Amino acid sequence: MASVRPILVIVSGCIMILTFILYVVSNALPEWGVSESQSEKATIGLWRACISINGPTQCGYIISDCKLYRGQAIQRCHKMMAARVFVTIACILSALSAVCIFTYIIIKTDANQIIFMISKVLPILSFIAGAIGLAVGIAFITPSDSIKLSSATFVDIVAVAINVIGAILTVLIR
């Protein structure tokens, strides 16, 4: 049973690296939602939106100052900001988790038990932040039936699912 522990630690560390990459990709892609008609296609992400009318695509950054919006757009802006925050926190926590897991393997010090405990907690926190970011991001993207979920949303769903696996594996390490 002692020989399973290093493998479990390495696998959970690799899973958290994969989780980090997926969270970064979902955060960066301007395709959380898509709306299409015959001649135009619009995509929206957490940071950028793009529109394509009969061919060429123009992209721009989404305004982050919610004070500029009125009515229901203010609520959508707040959802966008919350989704940005939680997905970004999930990115940071998943990266820190992988670093702690691999630090625990490589460095043998008196502080190893602290690093071990931190490496068990961070994947759980990363999962919570990722799940909240995903839920709020979907609420931001889908205020109407005309907008459908797109690739970045599905990447984030996969990231949250893999994050659960990483969190379970790190909890199983003894």
From TrEMBL:
GO cellular component: membrane
Signal peptide extent: none
Protein's name in the database: Claudin
Gene3D superfamilies: 1.20.140.150
InterPro entries registered for this protein in UniProt: Claudin_CS
Alphabetical keyword list: Membrane, Transmembrane, Transmembrane helix
Listed transmembrane segments: 7-25, 45-64, 85-107, 113-141, 153-173
Compartments where found: Membrane
Origin species: Rotaria socialis
